[in-house]
Amino acid sequence: MFKTINLGKRATCTVVRFVSPASPATGKRATKTRKGARANARTKPALISAFDPGFRGEAGECRHESPALVIVGCGDAAKLNTVAMRSIGGKLIRFLDRRATGAIRFDFGTLASDKATRAGWVQALAEGMAISNWRFDRHDGTATKRQKALNPLKVSLATRADSAAFSRGLAIAQGVNLARTIGATPPNICHPGFVAAECKRIARECGLGCRVITAKQAKVLGMGALLAVGQGSSKPPCLVHLSYKPRRVSRAARRERLVLVGKTVTYDTGGYSLKINNGMKGMKYDKAGGMCVLGAMRAIAALKPGVEVHAVLAAAENMISDDSYRPDDIITASNGVSIEVTNTDAEGRLVLADALVWACKTLKPTAVVDFATLTGGVVVALGSFCAGYFCNDDGLRAKYESAACASGEKIWRLPLWPEHRDHMRSQHADILNSAAARGAHPIQGAAFLSYFVPETTPWCHVDIAGVANLDSGNECMPAGPTGYGVRTIVELATSME
């Protein structure tokens, strides 16, 4: 949808100018475009008109003053931040779409005097525009009434710094939208083999390394947990490894190797612990952890940070057949830990178990972060307002929280104590995949996973069950998958440079 180019000063385009009311509470009009300088003769009347009653300059409020000028309100300048700018971007793109605008030139004026703040706001604006512009149209048929996609919007920016920040925002948003697109792909199309093929395609396009560990190879490697989940499906499970290795590693990142692991259950029936009361509806989103990892790798490949990053997607389909795994089965993961299955609907932690073991053993990470729609308990605890996370290392915790804050993706840390690990002990095997008591339900998943990561490896587990998809849309996103996690991963990776 977007194409960032230099249109030239005389090119035919619409100027998009951002303004804030001088004092919305008192109704004073903003008639200046630069602090301490009068608006030029062409702009001043438009701004005066814009702040007439009916246009209040609220965040995201747009007014088409002429074919060549759009005024965009930013609200109270003191409250303007990256979250607000994403929302403004979403409202702006819908405004431009309705008018079939083909080319724009941004005039940020004195949007922010600090260079870093301005760059963050411009990046967030681009993210909001591109994320809001996404829709899942791969299966629009002959009876659709939805509007067809418009021609690319050509965007021109005044400075190289603005252009770089805007391009960065678009790259991140493209990663988010990739995660949403494959996340929304239905299960009759998107199965483990499809995921592997998409990863290969994206790796070729972006210059990433890609390796697929097939079900046969997984059996040789002893991945009993991954294989158990996928054995009831006609589509065999697999493990996909994507790698990004920069041409030049930054001095700060010479000893860093970030590894991302994503739960990629392409469909979850619950197995013999069958989901009931329409509980299966929307289970195509159970691959959201793997998709956010994939989208982040796409963005990282485009931005080229000076740090080595790997991703491991554990792909399986949890189905029912005469060959499905059952409650009471005992299986063994690739690190030798035996697992008593008490609930076949607690399958995500099983596929992650073998993925974590393989990642830690093969890739020797300095930090591991896994993402999964793991528990309904985290939704009960935190709702859809934020993700819950667990971390065993203070250094990684600080980095991850800083990255999440910068990205605008909310998180909340939950405890993981030795008592929680003991709670997962089994009478007949080493551990249970789900304890009988529902207490500490979201923590049970993290406690289980802790048996598959070496204690000396910095590790963070992010449960995104409450934020992976929206039942109803908001200012930036329609209902459906959100691509949550992509922005934070990118911030985390670039912070390691």
What report would you give on this structure?
The protein has helices at 43-50, 82-98, 115-132, 160-184, 192-206, 215-220, 224-230, 288-303, 348-363, 376-382, 394-407, 418-423, 441-449, 486-495, and strands spanning 2-4, 14-19, 62-66, 69-73, 103-107, 153-156, 209-213, 238-244, 257-268, 308-318, 330-332, 338-340, 367-372, 387-391, 411-413, 431-432, 459-463, 469-470, 480-481. With 497 residues, it is of the alpha/beta class. The chain has 2 domains: 2-170, 3-Layer(aba) Sandwich (Leucine Aminopeptidase, subunit E, domain 1); 190-495, Aminopeptidase. It starts with a strand and ends with a helix. Residues 23-46 have low confidence and may be disordered.
Work out the count of structural domains. Answer: 2
As a percent range, the share of strand residues is 15-25%
Mean of pLDDT: 90
Which structural class do you get from the secondary structure elements?
alpha/beta
Q: Could you tell me the number of beta strands?
A: 19
Biggest β-sheet description: 8 strands, mixed
**Named CATH architecture of the largest domain:** 3-Layer(aba) Sandwich
SS element count, helices: 14
